[in-house]
Amino acid sequence: MVPVHQLALKSLWNRRFTASLTLLSIALSVALLLGVERIRVESRNSFANTISGTDLIVGARSGSVQLLLYSVFRIGNATNNVSWQSYQELRKHLDVKWAVPIALGDSHRGFRVMGTTVDYFEHYRYARHKPLEFAAGKPFSELYEAVLGADVAEKLGYQTGSKIVIAHGAGEVSLFKHDNKPFTVTGILRKTGTPLDRTVHVSLRAIEAVHVDWQGGSKMPGLSISAQKAATMDLTPKSITAALFGLQSRVSTFRVQHYINNYPAEPLLAILPGVALQELWDMMGIAEKALLAVSVFVVLVGLIGMITVILTSLNERRREMAILRSVGARPMHILFLISGEAVMLILLGILIGIGLLYGFLFIAQPLIENRFGLFIGIDWPSLYELSLLGILLLVGTVVSIIPGLRAYQYSLADGMTIRI
Amino acid sequence: MSRVIEIKQLLFRWQCEAQPVLNIDSLVIEAGQRVFIKGPSGSGKSTLLSLLGGVLIPERGEINLLEQRINTLPAGKRDHFRANHIGFIFQMFNLIPYLSVLENVLLPLQFSPPRRARVLHSGTAEDEARRLLSHLDLHEEHVHQSVTALSVGQQQRVAAARALIGRPEIIIADEPTSSLDADRRNAFIELLIRECDTAGNTLLFVSHDSSLERFFDQRIDLREINRAVDNRTEAA
Ligand SMILES: Nc1ncnc2c1ncn2[C@@H]1O[C@H](COP(=O)(O)OP(=O)(O)O)[C@@H](O)[C@H]1O
Ligand SMILES: [Mg+2]
Questions:
Q1: Nearest to B26 by CA among B1, B3, B42
Q2: What is the pLDDT of residue A126?
Q3: Do A326 and B56 touch (CB under 8 A)?
Q4: Is residue B94 part of a domain?
């Protein structure tokens, strides 16, 4: 077969203005497709990596997704608490290796405050069993001390030694501040890409201390207990929001879960974080699939646009085809010439699209990480992405045959006759 | 002398039901001849040339080119035959607009290995293209120009160079001068004939303009050999 690709290239170059518009639309749609796919995969990864190493999360009985949302993602609120007594009894269960209580409800300038114990910093794991690390300072040890997540410190410009005041409730602007009991920042955690980065950690006793002069969600009128006085009081909490459990062996997970779910003293719920994460992700999966579907449609629109442009140009190219026939081209050459142009456009569009994506990632990666806590790695295209592109090229090639066949028919009908 | 073109009992019509356009008992053209075929417009000249080029096939009859029956060859072989043995020149705009002058001239070599081999036998393809162009009064400054920048006369000479490159046995020109003024017309025909003489191709020149007859050594009036014309005039 005669190589007609040079002709196709020159003809494309001759129509470089329209060709580059077509190219741009294909490249943009490819970049969009890949970008959506990347964000999808990365957000799923970062999502699945939010918590690991914890075998069970225990809270008051509600939905498992709800429990996961407030205990791990700090989204929403618990409808009920777990009594301190039950927690104490549960942690004595033979199969339990470690337990970390958490108490939520307060906030600091829009960031959630979480009461816990220093064990939290030891046992909490994210990504693939990565432990928490301190970027500065150390865990809290005194009552009015706090450890900040990376984003809190960065956004609000805190360092170790900074003083902060926590507010009642979780809103951005809180009416009631526990301003008579300021906290000192003792440590700042390294960035984890999880909701932990946006959390202020204090001790469980500190949560109790700021609430000694409170009852049931409002300040007791006329009663004001100073920070020093509160410190001398019994600060054992009456209840906690939830607890993280590590077990002696994975094998006992379901037994312990069953035990907790049927705990006679109060209605509790124990969930496996991995299972609940999957459940939550599946709920969001529809949006994710819709997004992918939209970008697939954008790519299809790009392809259809290209085919339309080529088809409309065919009529004015019948002269060119007749000339080629007269110098010996076969109708098949004409088909390859026209389809070849389309395939070249698609191939180039894919390459430029990949380039656009990486260019965009290069610029936007830090912004996305900063703004959404989503780290998008600038890696080589994944096998899945390559196969997406492969399918696109395949579909594109098949679609490219349409104008090629049309040109083939024209050139059979016209022969060498030049029609003006 | 060998028969370059031999047509026997040829019958062609565009649609099955329609009147035949061509009905030719016999047409023979010997090698090295300069043949002028005249006929008014619409008389089937271009149709005849498409049949010779193997782009159309007759309903019946024989078309022999270079002693080979081409009308029974499969389509692909006919295309090869045309690429290897025939150079075409058409009325106007018969260059590929997105190729330079040089690329247009070299185009047939892409489709015909024998013609390419013939050119490469005596140097490079580019040199041969330049040589032909300069014989046709197109010089260095035109070689890399875009063909759209040329005058019509120059374009026709580029088309002639393209037909001549690789010395195909037959040159077929379909009204190549009808868009030129009288002076350029004569100059073009003289150049073309001179080139065919040096290269030894058979030239088939088709026109409705009988004032050009004088340049040729064999003149054929299509109306005299085409019996389809009589039928049609009778029918009209
Ligand atoms: N592609 C075609 N389909 C149908 N009829 C055609 C086609 N090309 C030419 N004809 C008809 O064939 C006849 C001869 O046309 P043509 O060979 O172009 O004449 P000439 O070249 O002598 O002017 C005309 O009547 C014309 O209408
Ligand atoms: Mg004609």
A1: B3
A2: 87
A3: no
A4: yes
* pLDDT at residue A356, rounded to an integer: 94
The range of the structural domain enclosing residue B119 comes to 34-57+72-216
Burial label, A39 (beta-carbon count in 10 A; 0-12, 13-18, 19+): middle
Q: What is the C-alpha separation between A115 and B73, in angstroms, rounded?
A: 91
Angstrom distance (rounded) from CA A304 to CA A310? 10
The DSSP line for A244-308 is: EEEES-GGGHHHHHHHHHT-SSS-EEEE-HHHHHHHHHHHHHHHHHHHHHHHHHHHHHHHHHHHH
Tell whether B156 is covered by a domain. yes
Rounded CA-CA distance A149/B13 in Å is: 88
Contact predicate A189/A134, CB 8 Å = yes
Between CA A102 and CA A112, with CA A108 as vertex, the angle to 5 degrees is 35
| DSSP helix/strand/coil, A391 | helix
Q: Which residues of B touch A326 (CB under 8 A)?
A: 53, 82, 88, 90, 94
Q: What is the ipTM of this complex?
A: 0.91
**3 state DSSP class of B138:** coil
Predicted confidence pLDDT, tens digits, chain A (420 residues): 557 888 888 998 988 998 999 999 999 999 999 988 888 888 787 788 888 889 999 999 998 989 999 999 888 888 899 999 999 999 898 889 999 999 998 889 889 999 999 999 999 998 778 899 999 999 999 999 999 999 999 999 999 999 999 988 766 555 677 878 899 999 999 988 888 999 999 999 999 998 887 776 667 777 777 888 888 888 889 899 999 999 999 889 999 999 999 999 999 999 999 899 888 888 877 888 888 888 889 889 989 999 998 999 898 888 899 999 999 899 999 999 999 999 999 999 999 999 999 999 889 888 877 666 667 778 888 888 899 999 999 999 999 999 999 999 988 888 888 765
Q: How do beta strands A130-131 and A125-126 pair?
A: antiparallel
- Name the residues around ion ligand 2, CB cutoff 5 A: B 46
> From residue B24, how far is each of A283, A370, B33, B37, B230 by CA, in Å?
80, 84, 20, 14, 12
Q: Please, what is the end-to-end C-alpha distance for chain B in angstroms?
A: 41
Instruction: Report chain A residues whose CB lies below 8 A from the CB of B108.
Output: 327-328
Chain B CA closest to residue A321? B96
Domain CATH code at residue B172: 3.40.50.300
pLDDT band (50, 70, 90) for residue B230: low
- Residues with C-beta less than 6 Å from any ligand 1 atom: A 417; B 14, 21, 39, 41-47
Residue among B50, B56, B94 minimizing CB distance to A323:
B94
Domain count, chain B: 1
Query: Quick check: helix, strand or coil at residue B100?
Result: strand
Residue B147 covered by a domain: yes
Taking the C-alpha atoms of residue A148 and residue B76, their distance in angstroms, rounded to an integer, is: 78
Q: Count how many pairs of residues, chain A against chain B, have C-beta atoms within 8 Å.
A: 68
Nearest Cα residue to atom 6 of ligand 1? B14
Q: What is the DSSP letter of A144?
A: T
| Residue B6 domain flag | no
CA distance A303 to B162: 37
Residue nearest to atom 20 of ligand 1 (CA): B42
Whole-angstrom Cα distance, residue B43 to residue A262?
101
